[in-house]
Task: structure prediction
Amino acid sequence: MNRTLVLGGARSGKSAHAEGLVTAEATYLATARRIPGDVDWDARIAEHISRRPAVWRTVETPDTDSLVAALDNASPADTLLVDDIATWLTGVIDDADGWESRVDLAPQRDRLVTAVAGCRASLVVVSAEVGLGVIPATRSGRLFRDELGAVNASLAEVCTEVLLLVAGLPLRLK
Result:
């Protein structure tokens, strides 16, 4: 099956481009967690929802168990779009209380990458590319950058196609 990884910086157009790659009815695996009372976050989620075709089904997969299960249970006839790995990773770090203490996130990363590699559906995965910026000044910022870089590199290994969005323009890396 075709597995495409779409990377890009903040507001690069990566999600919209990934959505445009899906030409069939799809299941949108939303990794964002809703934050009660956060109006800005709700507006961002609503913007994403408004772009999706009405025939797409949305499944909220804010943790590793639900995301891996959705990938594992897909059939070859399915089309899945995962958006996005950065918000998934934020939840993983939150769940592990890892922002201030050292935790081993490799098992979560390995579960995700194994599920992507074994997914029988046509799959498009969106993730932020954070390796082009400055070194974050905080431990939590460095942790996030380093972990997301490791996840992205591992996903790129198992995907058949990798695209990088820069200023809304896709560059084929693989």
Notes: The chain is about 45% helix and 20% strand. The chain has one domain: 3-172. The longest helix spans residues 139-158. The domain at 3-172 is CATH 3.40.50.300 (Rossmann fold).
